Amino acid sequence: MQTFLIWSGFLTFIAFMVALDLGVFHRKSHTISMKEALKWTLIWVTMALAFTGVVYYLYDSGLLQGTERVVQRVEGKRVEKEVPLSGMNAALVYLAGYVLEYSLSVDNIFVIALIIAAFRVPPAEQHRVLFWGVLGAVVFRGLMIAGGTALIKEFHWMMYVFGVLLLYSAWKMFKAGEEEIEVEKTLVVRMVRKFYPVTTQYHGSQFFAEINGVRHVTPLFLTILLVEGTDVMFALDSIPAVIGLTQESFIVFTSNIFAILGLRSLYFALAGLMDKFRYLKTALVVLLAFIGIKMILQASGLGHIPIGISLGIIAGILATGVVASLVASAREDAAGEGHLDHRPHHPVNPGAGPSVDVHDEDA
Questions:
Q1: Position with higher pLDDT, 66 vs 188
Q2: Helix, strand or coil for residue 33?
């Protein structure tokens, strides 16, 4: 009952903040300014960091209980065993999970920017797209986290599966070239068009529009569906990565939710600046590989990396990627050479994005 109340309290708080966001502060469609985006980014990051103290209290007081693996010396021999999760380590695991998930969300932002540009979403409607996209992500990720943590607790060998999956994801990200969105070829557009005619015109904030007595799907609805699908694909990488740090479902879920809820405001703050962080993708590759190796070592009993060290490594990898990117960009600007993009720049302004044809062939 106690655990149920804690979960209910967290979900109620998140529901209140989301309702406050859309129902009060963003009730009317409008273009999100950089100042507003930075303000909301600061709000969500502050709440996420403050929640570290809540996690510490919940586990330190025994209101929530978990276990962690530690390495001890018994009669000169190295022994690994499960011990109760302390409040301090629970807080460190939550913080590491949040930083990891938040950093992986940055690559998600770039793909979302491509989708929004491809559909030429009006600036005033972009916040609505991200709101509904993130809201759906909360539900899908909750189900994936519940399933993932349950699998590992029931079948220890799933640690190997998740570890290999992360190594494969790192390799796939490393080998990936320039990303493009071909709207007409996406599964979402093809499936929707089988059941509904699709209009190329936006109708304000409406997902459906009546045209000559026939209900049509608007590009706004298609955009939301694609954003949802994109998040599910990214979750296949990010959720196993956080589970690699801990199998405590409350910590995995809360760190994930705070990260993706801050994704909307972070998008408006960074979408036009992604070309400045050229080495961040390389840092994410190293990050996924590190967590994958960590999971395999832990599952095989060959080694255990304490959470404090893991957090330091994660922070160090990200800091290196960001600093290297900023230094390289500054040097090129100073030399007057400009920045040679590793990926094409797609501004958030829908007028600059490529045209999209989502006409219905059957209509």
A1: 66
A2: coil
Domain assignment of residue 199, given as a range: 2-27+46-352
Instruction: Say if residues 181 and 349 touch (Cβ distance below 8 Å).
Output: no
> Two tokens at 197?
């005619």
> Would residue 77 count as lying in a domain?
yes
Q: Is residue 357 part of a domain?
A: no
User: Alpha carbon of 337 to those of 4, 38, 328, 341, 344: distances in Å?
Assistant: 58, 29, 11, 12, 17
**Measured distance CA(265)–CA(353) in Å, rounded:** 20
pLDDT tens, residue by residue, 40-75? 888 889 999 999 999 999 999 989 988 776 656 666
Place of tokens 């408006």: 268
Tell me the torsion sign for CA atoms 214, 215, 220, 224.
negative
- Report the distance separating Cα 222 and Cα 227, nearest Å: 9
Q: Residue 361 falls within a domain, yes or no?
A: no
Inter-residue contact 6 to 249 (CB < 8 Å): no
pLDDT over threshold 50, residue 344: no
3-class SS of residue 70: strand
- Alpha-carbon distance of 256 to 100, in angstroms, equals 9
How many helices, marked H, and strands, marked E, lie in the chain?
Answer: 11, 4
Q: For residue 216, is it within any domain? A: yes
For 207-232, write each residue's pLDDT tens digit. Answer: 788 888 888 888 888 888 888 877 77
- pLDDT, mean of residues 175-186: 65
CA–CA dist 209, 216 (Å, integer): 5
- Distance, CA of 11 to CA of 17 (rounded, Å): 10
What is the residue-wise DSSP string for 214-272?
A: EEEE-HHHHHHHHHHHHHHHHHHHHHHHHHTT---HHHHHHHHHHHHHTHHHHHHHHGG
Instruction: Give the chain's domain count.
Output: 1
Is residue 346 scored above 60 in pLDDT?
Answer: no
Question: pTM here?
Answer: 0.75
